[in-house]
Amino acid sequence: MMMNRKVLIGMAALLLSTASAQAQDLATFDSVEGWDILIDPTIGNGCLINAQFEDGSDVRIGFDMAANTGYVWASNAAWGDIEEGKSYPLSFSLDGEVYEGEGKGLYIDDAPGVDIEFDSVDFLMALAQKQTMELSNSSGPVMTIDLSGSAAALSRAVECQDQQG
Predict the structure, then answer these.
(1) Which of 101, 117, 127, 163 stands 20 to 30 A from 7 (CA)?
(2) Are the C-beta atoms of 77 and 111 separated by less than 8 Å?
(3) What integer best gives the mean pLDDT of the chain?
(4) Which domain holds residue 97?
(5) How far is residue 36's CA from residue 123's CA, in Å, rounded to a whole number?
(6) Res. 119: pLDDT tops 60
(7) Rounded distance, CA 132 to CA 27, Å?
């Protein structure tokens, strides 16, 4: 896949003015290999995969049908003072392949996190084929997660999205 790395990470943008998604906003569709497949009505019934990890990280990878983009949301209560809507430079490593970009501060279920928007659904599908995702800021790595099962889960999320019309 030939794309400019900055385009892949893109300038993260708030998905909607209600970017602080709460769990009660999401409808359950299925569960696959440790990932929940959910529907978010606040972004045009976009489907997503969601998993919580041992380090306290909560990661969502999905489709924003309202903006016709894909996104990764990552949060962790231990991240501290993240400001809603503020841009944060970050590094996003997938099996050692590093992308530089920005994430927008947001809160997911009251935990600080970042929203990283992508204009390529193909990139999201490629992301799911990777084994490890590491998110870093200027101080170093803040999250390293195992992406096992994400390919099967994202495939199911595509089926979910097809059913949304």
Answers:
(1) 163
(2) yes
(3) 82
(4) 5-163
(5) 20
(6) yes
(7) 27
CB burial class (10 A; 0-12, 13-18, 19+) of residue 165?
Answer: exposed
Query: Using one digit for the tens of pLDDT, what is the confidence trace for 52-111?
Result: 999 999 999 998 888 888 899 999 999 988 999 999 999 989 999 888 889 999 998 889
* Report field, pTM of the whole predicted structure over 0.85: no
Cα 41 to Cα 18, 36, 89, 161, distances in angstroms = 11, 16, 29, 12
Q: How many separate domains does the chain show?
A: 1
Residue 104 confidence (pLDDT): 96
* CATH assignment at residue 38: 2.60.40.1880
What pLDDT does 67 receive?
Answer: 85
Contacts (Cβ under 8 Å, ≥6 apart) of 68:
none
